[in-house]
Design goal:
Layout: E1 12-13, H1 15-22, H2 26-47, H3 49-60, H4 64-67, H5 69-92, H6 94-111, H7 118-133, H8 136-143, H9 151-176, H10 182-189, H11 191-199, H12 207-212, H13 216-230, E2 238-239, H14 263-266, H15 269-275, H16 279-285, H17 291-318, H18 328-333, H19 339-349, H20 351-361, H21 367-382, H22 391-419, H23 425-452, H24 456-476
Parallel strand pairs: 1-2
């Protein structure tokens, strides 16, 4: 349904005002289901590396060190994919970014089934990594359809699809690996992508992106479709990409739009998005108005993801307390029975309470308080593990820590896109994603090395320090984006 009045008087409204009027309804539920399936698929592709390593090494006759290259090349692809996927999505549209991550992850992921040798498998996993690195586009695309009033809560709900994907992959590997082997696991793990390809046409381009590209007529058609599906009406007038201004011409207090740079040094956003090679976008991220947010987001991503993947290693260590310290690395790389599948299912399930807590807090107390509070709670739950305590208590504390840090990540997925303007949103989030991949790669190496040498106390203290510094970074974020427009 179009607006209730004529636009002859020149009245306009922003996409945030339109989305607030139509609310969260059937359209957003459809987008949540489809793009959430994308995150399930991404999680499955990452998690399967935990299960296929020993089988791949045995079939191709490679050593344990060479076998680790499967994970290394995937992370290398993610580093590149995070940046270039974000750039492409901001230049060519959210749909283009979605197709890049889905096609680049899904097709090579399926072709891994037919790898004739180890080198070809590594090449395919690098391509998969390129797609996985740009998966942040899915969360951003969904966010741009959600009303500001409950945007944070729904992003927390969206984040739960990742945890669901890790659990599904563990259950699938548990059923497939002992009987059919690793090739079938690669094939079946890629099936969610074919579901996405089949139904991807149901999701239109982001009206925010269309507005900043000057395609207001197309944006109006998208908003009218959303209004029809939700059985609501749009405001009178036409949509505009300009933020609301008060009578004195200043930006409304509820708008987070930033003047990124003076016009003579940066130019308009269309020029940035279409005529540069990526340098201008990088310059914009480090402009006077964004540099503090950008650097703090990078620091938070680095430290929090380091702590998260360190806790994954520590969980595997504590759940197998009968081993000697020196066998930690071998255990992590070569599980021999069903314990690894059970371990992944249980520890991943512990993340759901954290996601629920994030959904309850993020739109009530704000992004900064909820994200920083949960990261510091995680720090508190982890600290007692620096001393010798009972295995049951240790596992319980780790479960609580995993829940808190996952809740913090859910808030981060809402906050990061809200900090950046539409034409720079995916580039900014992609750059942060590249940084968190570094923390994700370093943590298993460092924490495993400490645990192998019986230095659990030092490993816990390093992770706790990272979490504490992440909490400090939250307190220093310059913007609180709760309930604000993100023009």
């Amino acid at each position: 349904m179009a607006g209730g009045g004529s636009d002859a008087d020149g009245s306009t409204y922003t996409t945030d005002e339109a989305l607030s009027r139509v609310g969260f309804g059937r359209f957003q539920a459809l987008v949540l289901g489809l793009l959430g399936t994308g995150w399930v698929a991404e999680a499955m592709e990452i998690m399967l590396l935990s299960f296929v390593g020993p089988a791949v090494e045995a079939e191709f006759g490679v050593s344990g060190g060479e076998g680790g290259l499967v994970t290394s090349v995937a992370f290398a692809g993610m580093l590149l994919g995070g940046w270039f996927g974000g750039l492409g999505s901001d230049r060519y549209g959210r749909r283009a970014g979605f197709l890049f991550t889905a096609l680049t992850s899904g097709i090579p992921g399926f072709l891994c089934t037919f790898s004739p040798n180890y080198s070809f498998l590594l090449f395919l996993r690098f391509l998969v990594g390129l797609g996985l690195g740009s998966s942040h586009v899915l969360a951003t695309w969904f966010l741009e359809f959600v009303p500001a009033e409950n945007r944070g809560s729904w992003i927390a709900a969206f984040a739960s699809f990742w945890t669901l994907g890790t659990i599904l992959e563990a259950l699938l590997a548990w059923a497939v690996m002992p009987i059919l082997g690793w090739r079938w696991l690669f094939a079946l793990s890629s099936l969610p992508y074919f579901i996405l390809f089949t139904f991807s046409g149901l999701i239109p381009e982001s009206p925010r992106y269309l507005c900043i590209r000057g395609k207001t007529n197309e944006a109006m058609l998208v908003l009218e479709r959303i209004a029809r599906m939700n059985n609501r009406s749009l405001p009178p007038g036409t949509v505009t990409s300009d933020p609301k201004r008060s009578v004195d011409g200043n930006l409304d207090a509820g708008v987070t739009t930033l003047r990124l740079m003076p016009e003579d040094s940066l130019g308009n956003n269309n020029e940035i998005s279409s005529k540069s090679n990526g340098f201008n976008e990088f310059r914009a991220l480090l402009s006077r108005d964004l540099i503090r947010s950008t650097l703090l987001l990078w620091f938070f991503n680095l430290t929090s993801y380091f702590a998260y993947y360190g806790m994954v290693v520590l969980t595997s260590e504590l759940s197998n307390s009968s081993r000697s310290c020196a066998s930690v690395g071998a255990h992590l790389m070569q599980p021999k029975d069903s314990s690894i599948y059970i371990n992944v299912v249980l520890t991943s399930s512990a993340e759901f309470p954290g996601l629920l807590l994030a959904a309850l807090l993020v739109d009530r107390v704000g992004r900064k308080v909820s994200m920083g509070g949960m990261i510091l709670l995680c720090c508190a739950f982890l600290a007692p593990l620096a001393v010798q305590i009972g295995e049951g208590v240790a596992i319980t504390l780790l479960f609580c820590a995993r829940a808190c840090i996952m809740g913090s990540f859910a808030v981060l997925h809402a906050y990061s896109p809200e900090v950046y303007p539409t034409f720079l949103r995916n580039t900014g989030v992609g750059a942060s994603s590249c940084v968190n991949r570094v923390g994700s790669m370093v943590a298993p190496l460092l924490i495993t090395a400490l645990l192998e040498n019986c230095h659990q106390k030092e490993a816990v203290l390093v992770m706790d320090l990272a979490l504490f510094l992440a909490g400090v970074a939250c307190a220093l974020f310059p913007l609180e984006t709760k309930g604000r427009e993100i023009q």
